[in-house]
Design a protein that fits this description.
- The protein is an alpha/beta fold and 382 residues long.
- It is globular and about 50 Å long.
- The protein is built from 10 helices and 16 strands.
- An 11-stranded mixed β-sheet has the order 5-4-6-8-1-9-16-15-10-11-13, sandwiched between helices. The protein has a 3-stranded mixed β-sheet with strand order 2-3-7.
- Keywords: Transferase.
Length: 382
């Protein structure tokens, strides 16, 4: 039985800021988090990526804890959860679930003996974060490639619909580690410049790192505007371990199923936050799926030009940004877009604008053929 599920307090930890408002302000000022960094895999050119300043991260955690006992990713996630708890100080941590999304966890610890080897395991990382705050319930780990962050929100909804929990803090994060850089470089998928999603001259992804957290609840919170998750669905295209369906089949099916659950038509969607990695195959697949779904004229953007691809955090970061786009009636441009480079025309947002918004889609796709769609609705309580 479908129950009402709401997205309440949130936080984004990224190179653009250490809370959601700082991130939104950076977007309004058209400041990208992508910069050129020295990297051993690119000794001459450097690596264009979104990387969080470690000194600032450690200083931020020092305000409420001892950072020496935590890995870099744990610090990011702890800071994100702390920001959410500050917005909801009355939360009962003995009954609130903790759901963690990540693709690689503490993968940077491989070969590093500063922490016990077991900390590489995502489950152990989850227990460390839960113990920091005193969560009583065993953390749930969601790791399903690059849809993980959005899927973790969908998992929270499904648990609540099944009567297993009343609320959950969903937190996600991933790093720009040597492991990740070498993997995408082996695909020759990393762009030498800041990525250009959906552009004719796109030539690959930019990597980024971030953590984000959101409180998911069966209650809408205080009076005023709220954001409700009214539909979600996943579908696998079973095409290839690292290549999406050439017909957009999986994403098309996930959009159709999510809209059916939401009980609305494609024409009612005001905005799409796409995956938009800036690889040739992903962007083409998405454009085909959106066109097949009757969404070719709906305003669409990708946040990868601002943050890079933050992997297991990306769909969570972008869902939070979509939430605030709805609340503020504010659309952000798809940074670095120049000229449409997909076979199907789509309506890419080229400048920031304010317009009345009621419904939005957040979509994500990942290795292994996974695809996710979330349908968000703005409402008013009171």
């Amino acid at each position: 039985m479908t129950k009402r599920i709401f997205l309440l307090g949130d936080a984004i930890i990224s190179p653009l800021g250490f809370d959601t408002e700082e991130n939104l302000q950076a977007l309004r000022e058209e400041r990208s988090g992508l910069l050129n960094h020295p990297n051993s895999f690119f000794p001459k050119e450097g690596l264009v990526a979104g990387i969080i300043d470690n000194d600032k991260l450690t200083a931020a955690l020092s305000n409420f804890g001892d950072p020496s006992g935590y890995t870099r990713l744990e610090k990011m996630m702890i800071l994100a959860v702390q920001k959410v708890l500050q917005q909801h100080p009355d939360i009962d941590l003995t009954t609130t679930a903790l759901i963690i999304s990540t693709t690689k966890g503490n993968i940077d610890l491989l070969g590093d003996h500063k922490f016990p080897e077991v900390r590489v395991l995502p489950g152990e990382m989850g227990r460390v974060i839960a113990n920091f705050f005193g969560f009583s319930l065993e953390p749930v780990i969601v790791s399903n490639a690059c849809i993980s962050g959005g899927l973790a929100i969908a998992i929270a909804k499904r648990f609540m619909e099944a009567g297993k929990m009343e609320r959950a803090i969903v937190v996600g994060g991933d790093l720009v580690s040597d492991f990740v850089v070498s993997g995408f470089q082996s695909f020759q998928a990393i762009s030498p410049q800041a990525c250009r999603p959906f552009s004719k001259n796109r030539n690959g992804i930019s990597l980024g790192e971030a953590a984000a957290a959101v409180l998911v609840s069966k209650k809408p919170g205080t009076q005023g505007k709220y954001i409700e998750l009214i539909g979600e669905a996943t579908a696998n295209d079973a095409n290839h371990i690292s290549g999406p369906s050439r017909t957009g089949e999986g994403l098309f099916k996930s959009i159709a199923a999510a809209l059916k659950e939401a009980g609305i038509m494609a024409g009612e969607i005001d905005y799409i936050s796409a995956h938009g990695t800036a690889t040739l195959f992903n962007d083409e697949m998405e454009a085909i799926a959106f066109s097949r779904s009757g969404l070719r004229n709906t305003p669409i953007n990708s946040f990868k030009g601002w943050y890079g691809h933050t992997l297991g955090a990306s769909a969570l970061v972008e869902t939070i940004l979509t939430k605030h786009s709805l609340l503020n009636n504010e659309l952000f441009c798809s940074l670095n877009f120049e000229e449409t480079g997909t076979s199907e025309k789509i309506n890419v947002i080229t400048k920031r604008e304010n317009r009345k918004l009621g419904y939005a889609l957040k979509t994500a796709s990942g290795f292994g053929g996974c695809n996710l769609t979330l349908v968000l609705k703005k409402g008013y309580n009171g």
